[in-house]
Design a protein that fits this description.
By secondary structure, this protein is of the alpha+beta class. It is about 25% helix and about 40% strand.
Length: about 70
């Protein structure tokens, strides 16, 4: 499956554990939420949701930001 650039909004601020777990993403603070931006295929999306769950984080939104990469 092709990778797409995604924007993931997670409730809460980025702690040190958060930054370590999601260091492979661009991380932005937006008020009470944190935005992750990065390239995901289906397998990696599952991995990211599992990381968030393991840290007790709530994903508020997940959206595709552009067309398929690598075309």
């Amino acid at each position: 499956m092709d990778a797409h650039r995604h924007r993931i909004i997670i409730r809460g601020g980025p702690s040190e554990a958060f930054r370590t777990a999601f260091g492979d993403f661009d991380i932005e603070s937006r008020g009470a939420d944190t935005v992750l931006i990065g390239e995901l295929d289906y397998s990696r999306m599952r991995e990211v949701t599992m990381r968030a769950k393991a840290l007790g984080l709530m994903i508020v939104d997940l959206s595709v930001q552009d067309e398929t990469l690598g075309r």
